[in-house]
Specification:
The complex is a heterodimer of chains A (114) and B (107). Chain A is mainly β. Chain A has strands at 5-7, 10-13, 19-24, 31-37, 44-50, 53-56, 65-68, 75-79, 88-95, 104-105, 109-113. In chain A, β7 and β8 (75-79) form a beta hairpin. Chain B is built from no helices and eleven strands. In chain B, the strands form two sheets. In chain B, strands 2, 4, 5, 9, 10 and 11 form a six-stranded mixed β-sheet that branches. The chains are: A mainly beta (114), B mainly beta (107).
Chain lengths: 114, 107
Amino acid sequence: EAGVVQSPRYKIIEKKQPVAFWCNPISGHNTLYWYLQNLGQGPELLIRYENEEAVDDSQLPKDRFSAERLKGVDSTLKIQPAELGDSAVYLCASSFSGVYNEQFFGPGTRLTVL
Amino acid sequence: GQNIDQPTEMTATEGAIVQINCTYQTSGFNGLFWYQQHAGEAPTFLSYNVLDGLEEKGRFSSFLSRSKGYSYLLLKELQMKDSASYLCAVNTDKLIFGTGTRLQVFP
């Protein structure tokens, strides 16, 4: 069974440029999460989707970050414009619906903003 | 507020036993996860405790005391491949992660 797929794995951009990350969750998982992980820290939730609906985006900096999950499967996270402080690993995870279910993480996209 | 505390780093010797502690103060509690994360890789699931007590799974065990806001992960018969970060995460209506404990296993 394929795991959570993310691309690209690495991205280097200059500040003020836009960037987009893509995630394909495990088949059958209704819930999709985007996390940000800084070096030496645990992941922090940015947004959670139940199917195509964003049910928790309270931690998403909406002035520059946006996300979508069209058709309730793949998802894209965008930053426009990127700032130096956005350098981090962006993790995507998926699970079956319900707070008790294990989340499966993708390998992440390591973003470097110069 | 939400607060989860774990030691930043630990070291141990191959073949030994190590206990990684996690204390938490959160608004809401639906269980506690432990994840393992090797450098540059995705976190992978180790255990999930909802009720008080010890859950054993091979070389790894996890304990929970809800009244004390306390959990630990016990790793037995340590192997070099166990060198990784171990993340404690409390399930409220979302996962709140601690900063992780970086474990180094030496021969």
